[in-house]
Amino acid sequence: MFSSCVVLMCGIIGYIGSRKASEVITDGLKRLEYRGYDSVGIAVVGEKGLALLKEKGMVSDVSLALDFTRLEGNIGIGHTRWATHGAVCKENAHPHTDCRKDIVLVHNGVIENYMKLKSALVAKGHKFSSETDSEVLAHLIEEKTKTLPLLQAFRMAMNELEGSYAVAMISATDPEKRIFIARRNSPLIIGLGKGEMLCASDIPAMLKYTKTFVPLEDGDIAVLVRNGYKAYTLSGHETVRKQITVDWDADMAQKGGFLHFMLKEIMDQKHFIVQTLASDITEARSQIDRYKRIDIVACGTSYHTGMLFSILLQSMGKCAQAFIASDYQFVAKPDKDTLVFAISQSGETADVLSALRHAKDSRKIAITNTMGSSITSLVDSTIFLNCGPEIGVAATKTFTSQLAILSKIVYGMERLNPVSNVIGSMLEKENEIKAIAAKLVSKEHAFFIARGRSVPIAYEGSLKFKEITYIHSEAYPGGELKHGTLSLICEGTPVIALAPADESLPKLIGNIKEAKARGAFVISLTDSEDVSKESDLTIPLPKNLDPALHPFAMIVPLQLLAYHVSVLRGINPDRPRNLAKSVTVE
Ligand code: F6R
Known about the structure:
- The protein is of the alpha/beta class.
- The chain contains 18 helices and 25 strands.
- About 55% of the residues are buried.
- Bound molecules: fructose -6-phosphate.
């Protein structure tokens, strides 16, 4: 029986050069593990031919247990997998091979027509050893090599695929020693080294070897040899793709002494925010002035940025609305008079990409952290966050950087000058927040409430909390509690109130009292004595803070709270269950 393997994201790395490929690949897989951590595999071609090792489990455990680096050879590919359906087992782990164990490949994405292709291949006598859609591709290429040279066989096979893919393939018997790669709706980037070439799903995996990259575009295929590469379109025409250079260094993708990437990324916000604020927003600002209707599309954490952006644009008199990207095509009719902002740290979120395709007649601007990502080719212009790679699955510094970009667009730079110090002062409260976290460890539910401009930050605080602590949590505009949710508040239920002293505070105090009267355990983020008096615990916000800075002051303690509750509950906050860093299927 065939079973579908829906892969949200996986990590791919390939190497060709003079180094020991297995060492480069194992190191790269460790850096890519945030993209998938169900199973892992490596294939290397050396003097003795093809060697392949794979198993279910985490990169560090499997690579050690199977001793990946014993494989000799200077060309190879590796994969770390994350699947939602289909067994997590050795057979389904990548790389996959054809019948002859000659073609070997790794794949990220979903081949939607794989059942049809598989039936035809089975009828021709191909024997399959896994349930995956990916293995079909190895056999399809094998079939085509019966009549075509390897490059054409690879290209023709890609032409038959429906769905999404990033693929890296080698052949045990290829006298020219090449890596064949291809992408559609799933990222794949070439790394240009000196006398060596790499490819990977993400830049951090290659930073140790190069800072110069060529992101492939949708429908591209490319052939890598030691000293260069050639890119082609699906129809076989040679093409040239833009080269980019990044100023990230390999250490940015390391924990740097912190227990988790997430904590490092929270702590780094004080510094990265300065880099982000140097980004040029003039084009975006002038487009906003030209358009009356502004749609914002995003998912998850980035959607919360979008919510705040829409509130602030509305206060400028704009007709602005934030849309959940996956629903945009069903609820909105963008036209040539619509300006669309797409917010996505990864730039690869399939829901966001399809929302942009829906807005085909509109002017489009992306806000992303990832140079060369798919989003950049679907928009008219891009603002980069410039906050370095984010490895923890839960978005932290990219959220704060997104806030910085939208705040600069709305308020201008001057009001944001103190932001780094504000973030720094909130980071200094880590020990107090850790003590509060200890009180939440064994709770089953938590509620985040706020009013007005603070509501999107409450949503984000709640999302961060639930995704890494596994404690059920919800966020509400305070006024909504009495319309239903109040029935869930009882003795000891944590209610986290975001209560900066702004025009909405008197109403929020009323909501805090309502919760308190039902026995809620209220933790407030506030600069108001009145709120502190009503609260069981207070995380103080700086006094007399410019409202433009409130979101920054509030999100940092909420990130730290989620982080510490997660760690106290014995969870790895960098890799929450069932979640992956970038979601490349709809
Ligand atoms: C939560 C989180 C996700 C992402 C969402 C969109 O911590 O990270 O909710 O925000 O999957 O991802 P991007 O911004 O890459 O489009």
